[in-house]
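Q: What would this complex look like in 3D?
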Amino acid sequence: DGGITQSPKYLFRKEGQNVTLSCEQNLNHDAMYWYRQDPGQGLRLIYYSQIVNDFQKGDIAEGYSVSREKKESFPLTVTSAQKNPTAFYLCATGTGGGGYTFGSGTRLTVV
Amino acid sequence: AQSVTQLDSHVSVSEGTPVLLRCNYSSSYSPSLFWYVQHPNKGLQLLLKYTSAATLVKGINGFEAEFKKSETSFHLTKPSAHMSDAAEYFCVVRSYSSASKIIFGSGTRLSIRP
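A: Here is my prediction, written as structure tokens for the whole assembly.
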């Protein structure tokens, strides 16, 4: 069953703590993306990666970091430098032919 | 630069009546356009896409969209709304400055009245 798995579904972070969101895919897609979703603002691109060991900043990369050590995985770390991390985070893959496949998301809350 | 504008943040229709969700785009090139649907606390699902073939595009769940270059529009329609259509809908354009990037509209929340 091909698809994208995001974990955990819910995540709570304390002030000053780094947390890592997992995104795994078995679609054999080269490109992977991380988006942040806030109410009424649509989706904003954080980071994306088109090939292994390479990634690019999106529109709101400050306070986030990523790695792409293997094709199947694209974890996102929300660092303590991100001052307003509470949001819904979506991972996606793309084939370049149009249309993305999205994971089911991780809801991050600062406590 | 490419952009999309969804003209309504919230649309409410009665079950069984037509649905119209409006989207206007801006693009210097012939655009690739998409509609996605998101149910609460879920990921996004592709409804349909336009990539320069037929201007009337049919998608899943009875939705369709018409590409109108003269009006720079790509409105999403459905003849008869169902309760399960209640969700958030996003109009999306592919960026040509970076072919792998897509740009989202701000979304339209569709509510269905019984």
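A: To summarize the key features: DSSP finds no helices and eleven strands in chain A. The longest strand of chain A covers residues 43-51.
Q: Very helpful, thank you.
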